[in-house]
Design goal:
This is DUF481 domain-containing protein. Pfam families: DUF481 (PF04338). InterPro entries: DUF481. There is one protein chain. This protein is mainly β. The protein has 2 domains: 96 residues, no CATH class; 221 residues, Porin, CATH 2.40.160.40. Strands 12-13-14-15-16-17-18-19-20-21-22-23 form a 12-stranded antiparallel β-barrel. Strands 1, 2, 3, 4, 5, 6, 7 and 11 form an 8-stranded antiparallel β-sheet that branches. A hairpin with a 1-residue loop joins β9 and β10. The longest helix is centred in the first third of the chain and has 13 residues.
């Protein structure tokens, strides 16, 4: 009776143990965790005991995974594996109904296929906050403060993105930059890649003659990719905008706009390249010939949750009015990610 109870307790508690992926090294070591990425000959293993571990692919003997992965081969082929089973040194078994042995040297990338559209049945919440401070005490005192955030919520066939930014710069207590902006985007996925986007944008500037900007737009978009290596999407919108000036009459106008959001990881996941932005062409050239607001930058991973960021921000409103905007800002700061 006691033996049966003991066996029952072992089976009961073992059902709560998380099944981990396993990586066997050529030197005999064995690492457990979750395989999330292979790129540029770097295998990324997420662990509870050491955070994210980056492993040289040339030092791996074989591995075993418990979840679905997309394996890209050097011959421009790719195979989807339900699981990966270990094999002899330098090889592994892809299991997708049938077992298929592949040499590690023939593998170019391993990524997690990210579910989109109706396949997403749970809530995914990600976000980041970036902060930049600069204070100079000299013949002319100056200070710069910049904070921006973005949070993304995905559930079902909808993706919500909320972002904002605040900038302030002063020299000898004379403020030359003081503005903030808020942006909300709703993407409704019609297929795995096509979506319909609705966007609302507001900006308030306490310095420039163009004091307030309101924009509401809608139109189709396309998700080129969204996986462990990064994401890239573009959308084409028809916008209704309103500009409010300090010294001029307010202007309401329609415009054609393009928006983009791109990021790409390099060297495992230590470095991330990114660019986001939008460009518009008003239907009425008396308002502005074109507008551009974009960020281009790079992030260097310090820890699992912190990064060092550098970006260039370009903001242009090119029109017939004297209240044009032409700004370029270079921002270096620390970011927090979740």
């Amino acid at each position: 009776m006691l033996v049966r109870l003991f066996i029952f307790l072992i089976l009961f508690f073992s059902s709560f143990v998380t099944i981990a992926d396993t990586v066997w090294m050529k030197n005999g070591d064995r690492l457990t965790g979750t395989v999330s990425l292979l790129n540029n000959n770097k295998l990324v293993l997420d662990t509870k005991y050491a955070g994210t571990v980056t492993i040289n692919w040339s030092e791996v003997s074989t591995l075993e995974t418990k979840s679905s992965l997309l394996v890209k081969l050097k011959q421009d082929k790719q195979e989807k594996a339900q699981i990966i089973k270990p094999s002899q040194e330098g090889k592994l078994l892809l299991v997708n109904g049938e077992k298929h042995e592949i040499a590690l040297n023939d593998i170019n990338q391993i990524i997690k296929p990210k579910k989109l559209g109706l396949e997403v049945d749970d809530l995914v919440w990600t976000g980041k906050v970036n902060l930049s401070l600069d204070s100079k005490h000299a013949e002319k005192d100056s200070s710069t403060f910049d904070i921006d955030f973005q949070t993304k919520i995905e559930r079902g066939n909808r993706r919500h993105i909320i972002s904002g930014e605040y900038n302030r710069k002063s020299t000898d207590k004379n403020v030359s930059t003081n503005n903030y902006s808020l942006d909300y985007t709703l993407d409704h996925f019609l297929t795995k890649q096509w979506f319909w986007q609705t966007n609302g944008y507001f900006k308030l500037d306490h310095i420039e003659d163009l004091r307030k900007q309101y924009t509401l737009g809608t139109g189709p978009g396309y998700q080129f990719w969204d996986d462990s290596l990064g994401a890239f999407s573009m959308s084409s919108l028809i916008n209704l905008s309103r500009y409010e000036y300090k010294a001029e009459d307010n202007k309401n106008f329609g415009a054609y706009g393009i928006r983009w959001d791109y990021n790409r990881y390099l060297w495992g996941k230590d470095i991330e390249l990114f660019t986001t932005g939008n460009a518009t062409k008003p239907f009425n050239s008396n308002v502005a010939r074109y507008t551009l607001d974009t960020d281009i930058g790079i992030r260097y991973k310090l820890t699992d949750w912190a990064s060092l960021n550098f970006k260039v921000n370009r903001n242009i409103v090119d029109g017939s009015s004297d209240a044009n905007v032409n700004e370029t800002r270079y921002i270096l700061g620390i970011g927090v990610n979740w």
